[in-house]
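Re: the 401-residue chain
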Amino acid sequence: MNRRSFFQTSGLATVLSQLASNASAEAPLKAVHDGPVIRIGNIGCGGRGNFVSAIIAENPGFKITAAHDYFADSAATFGGKYGIAADQQFTGLDGYKKMLEQVDAVAIHSPPYFHVQQAIDAVAAGKHVLIAKPMAIDVKGCETIRQLAKDAAAKGIVVLADVQSRGNEHFQEGIKRIHDGALGDLMFGECHYEADLIPRNDDDSNPEGRLKNWVRHRDLGGDIITEQNIHALDIVSWAFGRPVRASGNCGRGARPDNIGDASDHFSLLFEFEKGAVTFSSRQFNGWGSPFACGNRFVGNKGIFTSEFGGRVMIRGDKESFWRGGDTKNLYRTGTEKNIETFRVAITSKNPNGNPTVEGAVESTLLTLFGEFAAKTPGGATWEEFMSKSQSANPDLSGLKA
């Protein structure tokens, strides 16, 4: 679906610029490939779809041969960029189904509501799937994707979640050390995500205008905690696991217009069996405040700190201290590694259980739990969230099939 205009405007362009800072200063990873070339189609030809496709195009194991976007102009622009024939450019809500007949794999970059059904259809057609965060925008969708990945693996089909931090060696090592006891008993933590407003893309007065503004609508993109803040909360989920309770609030306090129903800030406390983590986010004009996406976890033996696009390390005594490393180019390099992992799994015919999906599903559920608790007076337990949360059900009437 069309993200292009969002990324051309200042708000989300600023976020991407901050996430991908210094990307051009470092040479892309050079994948080694001596096997067959995998024909891959891209679903969603907006900003993220173009960003990831540019990296896919650099990998000699892939060739982008088809594209789908609801909007014909977006599909045509993408097709021109990657040399895709006009008859391999598909449009409308269901155009991707025809595309599945022409490719070996798909990369899903549509508005998150559509991720689940598109992944289901791709696996049913025997196609490998690279799926962007978040996995879904409701509990049912998350559990569907979790089971889909397991079923796909049993059939030799690769389903891989493109979550950048999970593909980074510094985050991998840091979280492993936490699990191995480098921090001792986890006591508390802090998590934050701050970025500028994503401007509206259309007047929102008709179905297609609403679709262009999908990130402003909870039933198309999930609330901002799921669509954007997941980058920070993914690290909390990875380190702490599932919380038992959460409480807090969210709202729309600084957004200059009334388009959509997504929040522009969250403030939460996640309580775990051991320890608790505070979370705060901002998605509006910060009057010059920099983009921030990071975590700080405190235990009785050490302290873990990380920034998405910054330093990951552990401070502690000689047994706990770990110098870590810099992740300044994470937005790109994390995706590069995920794409190469995707290729290797396909060519080796070994999905290995599709392990990346499990963590991505749990992180998505954590964000959905945070939203549920923030909108429930007095907060909620995990069990209440799992039993009472509602499925997304957007009104797609008026859109072309």
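The domain at 168-327+363-388 is CATH 3.30.360.10 (Dihydrodipicolinate Reductase; domain 2).
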